[in-house]
Amino acid sequence: MNQSQQGAWWKEAVIYQVYPKSFYDSNNDGTGDIQGIIAKLPYLKTLGITMIWVSPFYLSPGADNGYDIADYYAVNPDLGQLQDIDDLIKQAGELGIGIMVDLVVNHTSDEHRWFQAALADPASKYRDYYIFKPAVAGAAPNNWRSIFGGSAWEKVAGEECYYLHIFHKKQPDLNWENPQLRQEIYAMINWWLDKGIAGFRIDAITFIKKDQDYASLPADGVDGLASIKTKSRNRPGIECFLHELKEHTFNRHRCVTVGEAPGVPLQEYDSYIGPDGYFNMIFDFHAADIDVENGSEWFKQRNWRVGEFKEALFASQRAFCQAGWGTTFIENHDQPRALSKLIRDADYQNDIGAKALAAMYFFMAGTPFIYQGQELGMKNFCRQSIAEFDDISSLDNYHRSLAEGFSEQQALGFINQRSRDNSRTPFPWSNSVNGGFNQGAQPWLAFSSTDFSVNAQSQINDAHSVFAFYQKMIALRNKHYPQALIYGSFAAVEDVDERIVAYQRATHNERFISITNLSAQHLPYTLPAGEIVLNNYADADATLKPYQTILVKE
After folding, report:
1. Which among 40, 45, 77, 427 is placed 20 to 30 Å from 184, CA to CA?
2. What keywords appear on the UniProt entry (predicted)?
3. Does the pLDDT of residue 3 top 50, yes or no?
């Protein structure tokens, strides 16, 4: 850890991500809402978290579930109104809980007034707020493939030109080369900070700088296209934009910033999170995408080993500690459930496995994030047809899998394993109708099962539940041993079986060893002398049981 960054308030946070549409439907219209979050604040306080990251609630047509923003200053009426956000900030604050919101400034919705003005008048100043290029030989300007599949260029009706969309065609990219656009973005950011939010999770921020040659690349798929990431992710010159962004906004407020930073090499972390870094912390995805060769091409699956997963975790830990501060997480709204992805032994996709994964990541260096339902040990949901999926990335991956020669059954298998709908299925509050998500209205995303045995009501008063395990972890980190478990040094424990994830957190007078067996085998391991402060089994001896996790205070 960089010593100059000791003691910041956001390091002591435990951040809980809420996906509003799927959290709690307070008015029984099928969609979760802001009032639903307010209603469940006591639950989150009981868990022990200190900040809520609220996924997008802005006005949006919903092509990418809110990440296609039509108005940065308005709330999607399905979720509530601006007053509800003010109430959430106030009532959460009264409980000592901060509110972090998503900042999506790589692109807008194609229904944003800027883009509509750009389409209406090619001479408008708004045409330069986006990236329009003339057709080349009657076709797209180059062969870049969007993250969601297909060409990254969409033809403008009635014109011989195209606009760029790194993601969905309804998410046109903003032109960060335009200083007037940048000032509009900064004004919006400061407006939200003035409202009293605690900070931002900054979406897809490493994509805002594109190579200005807009050159085609050698094709890397049967579609004749090439991944857009090569020319648009963490490209030279992005540092100018990110420094300016920080100076005009974040530096003027007491706030926390968390960058979504795929494509940033470990050796460049100092630029992002160092003493003069762009953000306070970033998300690292090297371990999160261990099961696929490419996070946006799910048919390129990998038969990964625990040893390489562990090394990916530890490599990011070393980079975080050397550069500044990082995050720890195993789930979010773009990932399947960790219990289904990281534990491949079905017999342990249960409380034992959920607790093993929890303790494995939670005590690493950095600010821990918990995604809704993770604290209950939720698993993936299996769907029988592609028609049952809502996620646009799932639909694109399904069709790309077919184009690559896989069968419909194989393609559906990839999607069930990796779909973002796995984590977006409505939250199970009880074992009642619709899992207590609402009073019976059809949820916006249908359940694929009516088994709600994993639910909050059954766990909140159960001392042996996954929920109680998370409560205990939070208390250990934040109340009992913060000096070691928040600010202590990190070091991997070497010379252990590759299926054992072990590391230490230490200060000059305290040391903890975290040991997790990520396998279904009994593995010999001599525990260090000391007090066992956390264990997902009732006992511990010289052999680690399958998926046993232990935290020892030496």
Report:
1. 77
2. Carbohydrate metabolism, Glycosidase, Hydrolase
3. no
CA dihedral 34→38→39→42, nearest 10 degrees, is 150
CA distance 104 to 112: 13
pLDDT in tens, 424-438: 999 999 999 999 999
Residue with tokens 């306080």: 45
Catalytic residue among 203, 291, 331, 391: 203
Per-residue DSSP letter, 528: P
Residue 296 is predicted with a pLDDT of 81
CA-angle at 454, arms to 426 and 303, nearest 5°: 85
Measure the CA–CA gap between 540 and 148, rounded to whole angstroms: 47
CA-to-CA dists, residue 98 to 19, 47, 495, angstroms? 16, 15, 41
Give 411: exposed, middle or buried? Use CB within 10 Å, 0-12, 13-18, 19+: buried
> What pTM value is reported for the model?
0.96
CB atoms within 10 A of CB 187: 12
Q: Pick the catalytic residue: 68, 110, 173, 260?
A: 260
pLDDT digit string, tens, across residues 476-532: 999 999 999 999 999 999 999 999 999 999 999 999 999 999 999 999 999 999 999
Question: Which helix (H) or strand (E) covers residue 371, if one does?
Answer: strand 367-371
Read out DSSP for 454-491?
Answer: S-HHHHTT-TTSHHHHHHHHHHIIIII-HHHHTTSEEE
Amino acid of residue 105: V
User: Considering just the CA atoms, what is the radius of gyration of the chain in Å?
Assistant: 23
Q: What is the mean pLDDT of residues 155-160?
A: 97
Q: At 254, is the secondary structure helix, strand, or coil?
A: coil
Which domains, ranges and CATH numbers included, belong to the chain? 3-107+179-216+232-384+422-469 (3.20.20.80), 488-553 (2.60.40.1180)
CA-CA distance, 84 to 195, in Å (whole number)? 12
Is 554 in the active site? no
| Bridge partner residues of 549 (DSSP) | 516
Give the separation between CA 131 and CA 176, rounded to whole angstroms: 9
Q: Is 260 designated active site?
A: yes
Beta-strand relationship, 511-517 and 500-506? antiparallel
